[in-house]
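FAQ: What does the model actually see?

It sees only this:
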Amino acid sequence: ENRVGPLMTMVGFFWFLGALQSADTAWAYTLGLALGMLWLGALVQMLVAFPTGRVQPGFERAVVALGWIAALVISPLAPLVIENRGGCDECPENVLHVWGSETASDIAEGLGVVVTIALLIAVGVVLVRRWRSYGPVQRRALAPVAWIAAALAAVAALAVPLIALG
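And it is asked to produce this:
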């Protein structure tokens, strides 16, 4: 009845979709660009739904919705204006690239950074709220998960702006 296991599996499978960005063929490379961030929606849902596997209505559901919007809408639209990520000169052609505007590319990358930081903050708020509502026994049992989630959020909060700045 607990849905955390399937969510963890989904995060893993979606994570490896991003590895398609290392492919030598244009269609696989483009698929990796467009679908490489699906893991983000699944990870946000898994962290917010932990430990029961269910997302509560209200703020938690809004955070999960933002995570899936970022993964399913913003990330797949970015390859339309971003020729390739990270300035890769040896990468295959991005077959979805339709508009070569540097301004549009900067806006798309900036939007991705802002949404990612907003997601990190929102997931942090959910986890802190949940932690504060737990009793001492629940806190002790869930401490390893809470510390790993906090470390992940801290590393991501430092990495996202640095990656965006090149």
